[in-house]
Amino acid sequence: MIAVLDPDVTSPVSPPPSESEILARLEETVSPSRLTLFLQCRLKFFFRYVARLTKPKTAALHVGTSVHAVLKAWNKARWREQPLSLTQLYQEYARAWVETDEPVAWEDDEADQMRTGWRLVETYIRESKIPESLKPDAVEVPVEADLQPHGLPTLIGVLDLVQQGVIIDFKTSSTTPNPEKVAHTTEVQTSSYAVLYREATGQRETGIELHHLVKLKNPKLVVTSMEPMSDRQQSRLFRLMEAYVEGLDRRDFVPSPGLQCTSCEFFNECRAWA
Question: What domains are there in the chain, each with its CATH number?
Answer without folding.
Answer: 57-238 (3.90.320)
